[in-house]
Amino acid sequence: MNSYFELNNENLSIETLFESIPVAVALLDREGRHLVINHALAAISGLKYSDLVGMKVSELSKESGENIKRDFAFFDAGKYVPDHEVTIGNRIFLVSVKPIRNKAGFAFAEIAALTDITANKEIESQLAKANQQLNYIASHDSLTNLLNYQAYRSACEQLIILSNRNLTTYAVLFIDIDNFKGINDTYGHSAGDAVLQCIASCVSHSCRQSDIAGRVGGEEISIFLPDTDWAGALILAEKLRIKIEEAKTQFEGIILKVTASIGIAVKTSDQQSVAEILQEADIAMYQAKREGKNRISYNKSI
């Protein structure tokens, strides 16, 4: 009671109260006119305090004018207007609005508070980028930048589920670099790493945007091809075989050339898992090895 009595006798104006609020705040009528504001809001708009009072928010921002219409439509329907973000200049603000109602419950005005959250949004953005980088590191092979084995299998599982649901086909390529051990034994593992990076680049530049590729073994790379039949798989496999054969890896003044054996497996009605189709593609790849290397083999007749 004492606090109320003291405030009541101070004859505080609404303008004085608004100025004491530590964030930008405005009282707006149903037309979006600024009835009362504080200097913090004027500073955001870049206008003089005296010019801003009486001005409609739609004169400053078409979006804000539409927001006013939405706010009062929500108030009239008894709905809550959720907090939302607006960008003004190079700053981001969280906007909170509440209705001012008369004794009959009619919302004749609203009070809007704008809190500068730019710094928080920058931190969120930095954290999101950091998490994205961590996720990339966790899911990709550091040497080739292809998906690592676990991430590749997980992605394949999701695409197989999608294929089964949509009744579409898919194919898998299994690529093994021919005589790779000889490269390591003759020139060292650094040379082998350079060759792997070169082949991975060939794979990445040969794949469609919808394809996924992963390093699934020491010198083994697999590609999952959604919505791809035998003909499409063979076209990509042959294109890739030629590209690998023509590729040149420069290492310490030496040009290294390799070939690859490629196995193909395509979805069949009895395949149920990633392991099964990868195994079929792997078997087909070893068949290509036995047939003389630098060639393509497949698990069914075409």
Question: Can you summarize this structure?
Answer:
With 302 residues, the protein is an alpha+beta fold.
Explained architecture:
The protein is built from eleven helices and twelve strands. It is of the alpha+beta class and 302 residues long. Strands 2-1-5-4-3 form a five-stranded antiparallel β-sheet. It folds into two domains: 2-118, 2-Layer Sandwich (Beta-Lactamase); 138-298, Alpha-Beta Plaits, CATH 3.30.70.270.
What are its keywords?
Beta-Lactamase, elongated, five-stranded antiparallel sheet, single chain, alpha+beta, five-stranded mixed sheet, 2 domains, disordered N terminus, 24% strand, 11 helices
Q: Can you tell me the CATH architecture of the largest domain? A: 2-Layer Sandwich
Quickly give the structural class.
Answer: alpha+beta
Q: Could you tell me the radius of gyration in angstroms? A: 33 Å
- Using the coordinates shown, work out and report the CATH topology of the largest domain: Alpha-Beta Plaits
**Number of helices in the DSSP assignment:** 11
Strand and helix order: HHEEHHHEEEHHEHHEEHEEEHE
What is the overall shape? Answer: elongated
Rounded to the nearest angstrom, the distance between the terminal CA atoms is 92 Å
CATH class of the largest domain: Alpha Beta
What is the makeup of the main sheet?
Answer: 5 strands, antiparallel
Main β-sheet, spatial strand arrangement: 2-1-5-4-3
